[in-house]
Specification:
The protein has one domain: Beta Barrel (Lipocalin). It is built from 2 helices and 10 strands, in the order ααββββββββββ. Strands 1, 2, 3, 4, 5, 6, 7, 8, 9 and 10 form a 10-stranded antiparallel β-sheet that branches. A hairpin with an 8-residue loop joins strand 6 and strand 7. The longest helix has 22 residues. The protein is globular and about 75 Å long.
């Protein structure tokens, strides 16, 4: 009887681990969630972070030049730093961004731009659509169509989807070649949002 209880307990624990692990789709998703991915992603989301790196490599004959650009967004300020053989430059811009993802696939966004002293210089709203790229339980990528070209426009891997936090990751690689000349761009950017 005691062995039967131990076996039953082990079977229940194994089943729970299997069920819980099937809930996790994004690399950094919570181990267990009682809400579906549809239920978690449909919300109003405020941009709170951007971390990105773009590396451009150009080859012209025997000369290779590499330019690296990093972006970091925090507290409403985006800092862009570019490093190349001619040195390093850095600039900042201030903005805030909020997007709404609705259950019916409707998308809306609001962007406010500010000058360096924090005064609002422009504000605009945009609309579009969003859709999961995969159906069923394997919803791991999303496409957002925003004709204004905002930071939310494009195809993203859903790296993390918690009840109050969303991380979207975009990776892009471009390669072009003609004779002894070539260009390659490798860019990865992660956008972090908090639920409002």
């Amino acid at each position: 009887m005691k062995n039967l209880r131990i076996l039953s307990f082990a079977l229940i624990c194994t089943s729970m681990v299997f069920v819980a692990s099937s809930c996790k789709k994004g690399e950094n998703d919570p181990f267990l969630s009682f809400r579906s991915r549809d239920g978690r992603i449909t919300a109003v989301w405020k941009l709170v972070g951007i971390e990105g790196t773009t590396k451009n490599t150009s080859v012209s004959g025997s000369t290779t030049s590499i330019t690296t650009t990093t972006q970091a967004y925090s507290g409403g300020t985006l800092t862009t730093t570019t490093t190349s053989s001619s040195g390093t430059t850095s600039n900042t811009s201030k903005f805030d961004f909020e997007m709404t993802l609705e259950k019916d696939g409707h998308y809306a966004s609001k962007t406010n731009n500010y000058n360096t002293s924090g005064t609002l210089t422009s504000a605009y709203e945009a609309e579009g659509n969003w859709v999961w790229l995969t159906d069923g339980k394997n919803k791991s990528s999303v496409t957002i169509t925003d004709l204004s070209g905002s930071v939310a426009s494009g195809t993203f891997d859903v790296d993390q989807l918690k009840s109050k936090e969303l991380k979207l990751k975009k990776h892009q690689r471009i390669r072009q070649a003609s004779g002894s000349n070539s260009f390659e761009q490798d860019a990865t950017t992660t956008y972090t949002y908090e639920k409002q």
